[in-house]
Amino acid sequence: MRHRGFTASSLGLLAVWIALSAPDCGSSSTSERRDWKGVPHRARAVGDSLFVLLARETRIAPRRSRGEVNAIYLKCPRPAARFELDWVKDTLAGRDPFEVIDRELPRRGWIRDPRRADGPDGAVYAFRRGPLLCIVESAWETNATSDSSAAPPRMSMLVDVAEAKPCPKGPVPERE
User: What distance in Å separates the CA atoms of residue 96 and residue 89, rounded to the nearest whole number?
Assistant: First the structure.
């Protein structure tokens, strides 16, 4: 008779699944999960999938919240399943979050949107797949000094998943 054991990765996935499906016990993760109420089911499902993927591959605990699509992609307010990761550059235990997103979304059939914005302390770009839009925003501290003893810069990634349908015709409602 062969013994079937759990690997570390299968135990990690089980722990994430339990945490995401746990009943409301007043924990911050369940209260944060309610923030996605009103976001279309498909966007929430993709948000959940990317949340688990990034937590597993980067070993960073993402934070959930309800977001809104960046105005360079849609001119009208659109609710989004949002999560954010923060880390210090060069101290990651796992993979770089941007490498994970840039590798996995195309593997899953997402097409990179040609619009993007880059600046000295951040960037925003997006992917599309069918009726969905996944927007990735990044921010980092810039170190103006060449001092090698300076602390590595802080990095952050914000991911919004929402419907990609066009804005309604007529006057555009105000963004909050």
Answer: 9
| Dihedral sign of CA atoms 87, 93, 99, 104 in order | negative
Contact call for residues 113 and 128 (beta carbons, < 8 A): yes
Percent of the chain with pLDDT over 70: 72
pTM score, two decimals? Answer: 0.73
CB atoms within 10 A of CB 169: 6
Looking up tokens 């995401």, which residue turns up?
20
Torsions phi, psi for 157 (to 5 deg): -130, 135
Distance from C-alpha of 141 to C-alpha of 88, rounded to nearest angstrom: 10
Within 8 A by CB and 6+ apart from 56, the residues are 9, 12, 13, 16, 94
- What share of residues in the chain are helix, strand, coil (percent, to 5)? 30, 30, 40
Instruction: Name the CA dihedral angle for 71, 74, 78, 79, rounded to a multiple of 10 degrees.
Output: -60
Which residues is 111 bridged to in the sheet? Answer: 128
Q: Describe the strand order of the beta sheet including 79-88 as a list of residue ranges.
A: 63-68, 79-88, 154-163, 132-140, 122-129, 111-119
pLDDT at residue 10 is higher than 70? no
